[in-house]
UniProtKB/TrEMBL annotation:
GO terms for molecular function: FAD binding; oxidoreductase activity. Pfam families: FAD_binding_3 (PF01494). This is NAD(P)-binding protein. Residues 17-316 form the FAD-binding domain. The keyword Repeat does not apply. InterPro entries: FAD-bd (IPR002938), FAD/NAD-bd_sf (IPR036188), PheA/TfdB_FAD_monoxygenase (IPR050631). Keywords: NAD, Oxidoreductase. The lineage of its organism: Bacteria, Pseudomonadati, Pseudomonadota, Alphaproteobacteria, Hyphomicrobiales.
């Protein structure tokens, strides 16, 4: 990326002047795609190098394919650990195996990989946004220690931060408080032979544990663990996981060490409690919201990056090209993005899948006990006949997912 600049009005330039506030994954991808399309883009973020943050750390085949369309899969793969098989376990026995290309990559490495590919048309301003004034004709962004940035369109990609949205009268409505808690940490093998499997997913043993699954997968230089559970912040089990992570894992997943090999926990245990929230009063002149700024996603579902990519791709490839000739950016103009059928389907799917995963994991009603039993029993049956007819198994899995209401990405 070029040194920091401020964007000034220049109607002689092709495309459109666009300011993107927020340099995480959604903002960085938006700036990249718009810059590649020839728009004059200013990306504004507090950090020149994105800091270490515990967020999405694994990409599945659908997400990799989207990055390929964006021209980014090779750049991301160069910083990721690639793996093609995941062993899926529950209660000490094999459920099935996932055969598909995945990337294990820490969130900040993913963002930096994309920033390194940023087109020259994108200018970067490092600083904290103090105020935003939006309107149909011009958007004005005041940044501490910098000149004002102006643009015809503002893309707000600030994640769960509320301050700037409040400037615009956009509110955040929590629809599922404390939906889930996620943990991330590194494992180091104690034996000389390393780990016995490239990647492993181990589903919760008991409903009372409130554990959806533990996912072990490689990232550059380490074996990473992501654990997803439905527990309260003050739960003593959470405190035990932070203080005695190996013992707590061994108790929650009997047979884990025997399956994967002995290990030690390296470094801190990161955690992330998710409230599922949606934006209200977001139909504004001159401003569009993408990613978590519009709707947050339960990380246990594995749909967060897919939903983000859908937002960014639909906005940058379907709608901004239509708006290039517009002299004004009214709320009515921008509503087409929010009303896009593919975006709405993905937003709804993320919410439905979050509800399904939670109920499948901790539901005690007879319906969910039966669905849980059938879900894993059918996966085991399909795994048993997989070698006989992979094509038939693929069809049966599609039927199973349609009937259960679940189409969880293969990363889960």
């Amino acid at each position: 990326m070029s040194p920091e600049h401020t964007a000034q009005a220049d109607d002689s330039k092709p495309g459109m002047e666009i300011a993107v506030v927020g340099g995480g994954l959604s903002g960085t991808l938006t700036a990249y795609l718009l810059g590649r399309a020839g728009h004059s883009v200013t990306l504004i973020d507090r950090h020149r190098s994105f800091p270490r943050t515990f967020r999405s750390e694994k990409l599945g085949p659908g997400e990799i394919e989207t990055l390929r369309r964006f021209g980014l899969s090779a750049a991301v793969a160069a910083r990721a650990a690639c793996f093609d098989e995941t062993l899926n376990m529950r209660r000490g026995s094999v459920v099935d195996r996932t055969h598909a290309r995945h990337f294990g990559i820490l969130y900040h490495d993913l963002v930096e990989a994309i920033r390194a590919e940023m087109p020259a048309a994108v200018r970067f301003v490092q600083g904290q946004v103090r105020e935003i004034k939006a309107g149909a004709r011009r958007q004005r962004i005041t940044i501490v220690g910098h000149e004002e940035v102006t643009a015809r369109l503002l893309v707000l990609a600030t994640g769960t931060g509320d301050t700037l949205r409040r400037d615009l009268g956009i509110t955040r409505r929590i629809i599922r408080p404390r939906q889930s808690v996620a943990f991330g940490f590194n494992l180091r093998p104690t034996g000389t032979d390393g780990f016995r499997h490239a990647a492993l997913t181990w589903y919760g043993e008991r409903v009372s544990d409130g554990i959806d699954y533990l996912s072990l997968f490689p990232v550059a230089g380490a074996m990473r663990a992501n654990l997803f559970a439905y527990r309260d912040r003050g739960d003593s089990w959470i405190r035990a996981l932070r203080e005695r992570p190996k013992d707590t894992l061994a108790a929650a997943f009997p047979g884990l060490i025997g399956t994967m090999g002995d290990f030690e926990i390296e470094g801190p245990v990161d955690s992330w409690i998710t409230d599922i929230a949606v934006a209200d009063n977001y139909r504004q002149d001159g401003v569009v919201l993408v990613g978590d700024a519009f709707q947050t996603t339960c990380p246990a579902t594995g749909t967060g990056v897919t939903r983000l990519l859908t937002d960014v791709e639909r906005l940058c490839t379907s709608y901004i090209p239509r708006w290039t000739s517009h002299n004004v950016m009214t709320a009515a103009d921008l509503a087409a993005f929010y009303d896009d059928a593919e975006k709405r389907r993905m937003d709804a799917y993320a919410l439905e899948t979050a509800d399904f995963r939670r109920r499948l994991t901790i539901g005690t009603e007879m319906e969910w006990r039966l669905r849980r039993y059938c879900h894993f029993a059918l996966r085991r049956v399909l795994n048993g006949i997989d070698r006989l007819s992979p094509a038939l198994v693929g069809k049966l899995r599609q039927i199973k997912d349609a009937q259960s209401g679940q189409n969880v990405p293969s990363a889960v």
